[in-house]
Amino acid sequence: MKGLAATLEGNDGIFNIEELEVPAVEPGTILIRNTGAAVCGSDLHQRRNSMASDTPKPKKIAGHEFTGIVHSLGKGVTTDSLRRPIAEGDRLVFPFFFPCMRCINCLKNQLHACAYRARPNMVNTFEEYPYCDGGFSQYFLLQPNHWAFKVPDELQDVDAALATVNCSMAQVMMGVHLAEVDDGDTVVVQGAGGLGIYATAIAAETGASQVIVIDGQKARLDLAMRCGATSTIDLTEYDSPQARVDRVRELTGGVGADKAIEVVGVASATLEGLDMVRTGGTYIDIGNIVQDEISMPASKIIGKQLRWIGLAHYNPWVIEACLRMLVRTKDKYPLLDLVSHTFPLSEIQSAFELAEWHGKSGGSEATRVVVTAE
Ligand SMILES: [Zn+2]
Ligand SMILES: [Zn+2]
Q1: Cα separation, 258 vs 189, whole angstroms
Q2: What is the pLDDT, as a whole number, of residue 252?
Q3: Residue 205's pLDDT is what?
Q4: pLDDT reported for residue 125
Q5: For position 8, what pLDDT does the model report?
Q6: Phi/psi at 190 (nearest 5 deg)?
Q7: Which CATH number belongs to the domain containing residue 106 in this structure?
Q8: Gap from CA of 1 to ligand 2 centroid (Å)
Q9: Which of 2, 66, 142, 312 has its CB surrounded by the most CB atoms within 10 Å?
């Protein structure tokens, strides 16, 4: 059996569609037939090479924010991670990375920070098992004992939205969890792309008394207001870092926000965001996977007694929490309509060009772009 995959090689950012061998299911594994993969900010950073050196990158299948249905179950697999029976054709959401379970980070239940966290599609050559395996491809193999969560029946005809659960939504669910957002907290969300919109709704559902969302696009800010934001700060109106920091202070009784979450991906946003948090508050950095530098007084974090947490990935339980929240809030927030554009796999290049915000004044017009696996 063969499957199609979009591969990237070197630094030119041009995808090739290739036909690759599909791995046979081995005992304990689940072969997923992908339904769609979203273009995540980190995919954009990678394609544009803003995270790494100039050395040409080996060929790989990009894409990690995706979902699919059970194509075939390996011997011994009969249920999802919550012991619910699964069969061929069932929709599953699963982490795209594989914690090793044998390092100190895993033993401390920091599965998101596993030091040996594998992503087979990022390290293998395509002549080796599991071949056709990744987000922007038609198949993905879940390793033995990997986590997988059955999609609730209440979520029908939302395959494009489901593609965004295992990265953008799960990522900020973990962020809000680590921030320990309490009832009544004031929360700033920097950036109202896919992650920012999810973060807004999750913070609101967690009990925040205020969710202040910052972005430069009116359409995104309007969407944030429909997804739990209590106020917004438009970058075109508040056009300096100090003006935005002052506005956050003003909205929070002069003290700054209890918690702030960065999902922008521009280094300077971190510096600005740290100033928006009150003394003793918490700052969660998720978007800044870039190499750009920031500088600040060494005493700043201590002086303000901040908890400054860098976060990538998540613990698998958050996926189930996301699915339950999508069911619970489906008539409250338009979270299942966040995907603004879809493209077939053969048009992945156009999908990336549309999703790209770098170099476009005002950013991309797209909230989230999904590439279907057809
Ligand atoms: Zn991602
Ligand atoms: Zn580990």
Answers
A1: 12
A2: 98
A3: 98
A4: 63
A5: 87
A6: -90, 110
A7: 3.90.180.10
A8: 32
A9: 66
Residue 326 counted as domain residue:
no
Q: Which of 294, 310, 326 is at the close of a domain?
A: 310
Residues 193 and 142 in one domain: no
For 113, phi then psi, to 5°, come to: -110, 20
In a domain, 321, yes or no: no
In terms of residue numbers, what domain contains 86? 2-164+339-372
Q: What is the CATH number of the domain that holds 195?
A: 3.40.50.720
CA–centroid distance, 164 to ligand 1, in Å, is: 8
Tell me what pLDDT residue 12 has.
84
Distance 244 CA to ligand 1 centre (A): 27
254, two tokens = 């002069």
pTM of the shown model: 0.94
What is the tens place of the pLDDT at every residue in 63-80? 999 999 999 999 999 999
Residue 101: nearest ligand to its CA?
2
User: Are 302 and 283 a contacting pair, CB within 8 Å?
Assistant: no
pLDDT beneath 50, residues of the chain = none
159/197 same-domain check: no
- H or E stretch at 200: helix 194-206
Q: Is residue 329 part of a domain?
A: no
- Residue 95: nearest ligand to its CA? 1
Q: What is the per-residue pLDDT for 11?
A: 80
Crossing angle (nearest 10°) for helices 218-226 and 194-206: 30
